[in-house]
Design brief:
The chain has helices at about 20, 30-35, 45-55, 60-80, 100-105, 120-125, 145-155, 185-190, 210-225, 235, 270; strands spanning about 85-90, 110-115, 135-140, 165-170, 200-205, 245, 250, 275-280. With about 280 residues, it is α/β, with parallel strands linked by helices.
Length: about 280
């Protein structure tokens, strides 16, 4: 991995250079997720927010690990179904094995585009470019709420053939998109432009299993400048409108095709507080 970090800035520093430009003066969802996964790309503001959240929802670290394990299983599933093109939206910071490593372990010729709107995520994205020689990876700036622009940028990158199936990953992303930005409509427009045989995989926090706790979670997030909108199972199910859900459907993330050693064990749904599912475009 080459070092793209300025000499006066380090992932664990408390007062990094250029913090206003990169949003490092306030908590950020990607850095919170990194903290919950045991990473080092987070700052004092993130750790303070994380501890506030953990006081209300102690299992939030477990939920992050469950989400990561679900991603691995979903990507392996799509690759085993013959998909060779993966679009990861809301990439966040690298944590090996990354999506391309999981996909290329099944089929070395898999191609992966990582997309995020956060400039600091892109600073650390060099770890996502170590593709196997048979495949390719790219990192780009793109926003799921602007699907036409997103796919136009993907086409310009010349990594994918959009006439062939693509597996789209929206893992722990959509609960950061408020209803005012019309995420259901945006996801629908994105899927409409994909080839038949494509897949949509998503995971999404829910308040339905513990409403009072999640009201407190959203309040803490708002206090730290983070938008959080957990949704009910039926609201999450709407993202798959017109698609064929893969068995077992939309379920708590740890119950989606569990594998031995894949994520934390001995969990209940309230601890996980995360629905996950994958669906195919026919």
């Amino acid at each position: 991995m080459s070092d793209h970090t300025p000499a006066s800035e380090s992932p664990g520093s408390d007062v990094p250079y250029g913090q206003d430009a990169l949003g490092q003066d306030r908590a950020h969802s990607a850095r919170l997720y990194d903290y919950f996964l045991g990473g080092k790309t987070n700052y004092t503001v993130d750790r303070d927010a994380a501890r506030d959240l953990m006081r209300i929802l102690p299992a939030i670290e477990t939920a992050a690990r469950v989400n990561r394990a679900y991603m691995h299983r979903a990507v392996r599933y799509a690759a085993r179904q013959g998909v060779r093109q993966f679009l990861d939206l809301g990439t966040g910071f690298p944590h090996s094995p990354n999506l391309h490593e999981v996909a290329q372990a099944v089929a070395a010729d898999c191609r992966v585009v990582y997309a995020d709107t956060d400039p600091i995520v892109l600073v650390y994205a060099d770890e996502l470019l170590d593709s196997r020689p048979e495949g390719r990876t790219r990192v780009m700036t793109a926003d799921v709420t602007r699907p036409e622009e997103l796919l136009a940028t993907v086409a310009e990158e010349d990594v994918f053939d959009l006439g062939r199936p693509v597996a789209v990953s929206l893992h722990a992303v959509l609960h950061l998109v408020p209803d005012a930005e019309q995420p259901h409509d945006a996801v629908g427009r994105l899927v409409d432009q994909l080839a038949p045989g494509s897949y949509l995989s998503l995971s999404h926090c829910t308040g339905g299993l513990s409403p009072a706790t999640w009201r407190a979670v959203t309040e803490v997030c708002a206090r730290h400048g983070i938008v959080a909108q957990p949704r009910s199972r039926s609201q999450i199910r709407r993202f798959f409108s017109g698609l064929q859900l893969v068995e077992p459907g939309l379920v708590p993330a740890h119950r989606w095709r569990p594998e031995a050693g894949s994520g934390p064990g001995l969990l209940n749904s309230e601890q996980v507080c995360l629905y996950a599912g994958m669906a195919r475009k026919t």
